[in-house]
């Protein structure tokens, strides 16, 4: 027992030992239902340049994990694997060094080698273990404002024009959101056959409208009147 404690508190095992205690505490909270691993980021496509539906790429810990080839599972799972394996390898290396009778300068160099070996070994082990785990964590596309395009909304302001308007729209999961909506600008004087909606009636509170475009620069949706009620049979 004394030898184990000496190895666990020796360099470099002690560096990963404290991190391992944090990992153990984290998973105890997960088992108790206090945390959800998916809430702390998901390392998606291993290609770090892949963009989401909104044009936002992976960043932060998820981006680093994906860049290391360990994407496809929650970041918390990957980090737990890395820390656990690195601690075990460094513990084994520290224990071996404890029995070696070498000069202090050589011992320091060997300890640094154990640290580097533990890091490389933990990455290799995680790379192997992540492959089968990906089947348990299918990659889900994050929600996007583009998901509202093609949906019917209900106008919530007194009017909707090219410069003002809000509407309520329901997402696929049943939740609702208030979004900024606009109509297309008024046609030029005299109209013209190229104008898509000549004489389009105004939208008022309670009316239904169809979302047909999202303007990313202005952060609003373009809508057109839409009658949700079925018409009479022909």
From TrEMBL:
Keywords: Membrane, Transmembrane, Transmembrane helix
Official protein name in the record: DUF1449 domain-containing protein
Residues that span the membrane, as ranges: 6-29, 77-98, 104-130
Organism: Streptomyces eurocidicus (Streptoverticillium eurocidicus)
């Amino acid at each position: 027992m004394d030898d184990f404690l000496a190895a666990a508190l020796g360099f470099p095992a002690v560096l990963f030992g404290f991190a391992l205690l944090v990992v153990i505490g984290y998973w105890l909270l997960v088992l108790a239902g206090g945390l959800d691993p998916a809430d702390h980021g998901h390392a998606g496509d291993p290609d770090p340049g892949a963009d989401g539906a909104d044009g936002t790429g992976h960043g932060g810990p998820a981006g680093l994990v994906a860049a290391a080839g360990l994407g496809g599972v929650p970041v918390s799972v990957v980090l737990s694997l890395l820390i656990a394996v690195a601690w075990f390898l460094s513990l084994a290396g520290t224990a071996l060094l404890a029995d070696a009778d070498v000069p202090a300068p050589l011992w320091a160099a060997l300890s640094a080698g154990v640290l580097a070996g533990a890091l490389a070994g933990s990455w290799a082990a995680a790379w192997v273990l992540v492959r089968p785990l990906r089947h348990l964590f299918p990659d889900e596309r994050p929600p996007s404002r583009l998901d509202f395009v093609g949906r019917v909304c209900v106008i919530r302001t007194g009017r909707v024009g090219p410069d003002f308007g809000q509407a309520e729209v329901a997402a696929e999961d049943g939740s609702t959101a208030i979004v900024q909506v606009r109509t297309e600008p008024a046609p030029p004087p005299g109209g013209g056959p190229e104008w898509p909606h000549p004489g389009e009636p105004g939208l008022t509170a309670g009316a239904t409208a169809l979302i047909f475009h999202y303007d990313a620069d202005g952060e609003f949706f373009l809508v057109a009147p839409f009658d949700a009620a079925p018409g009479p049979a022909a």
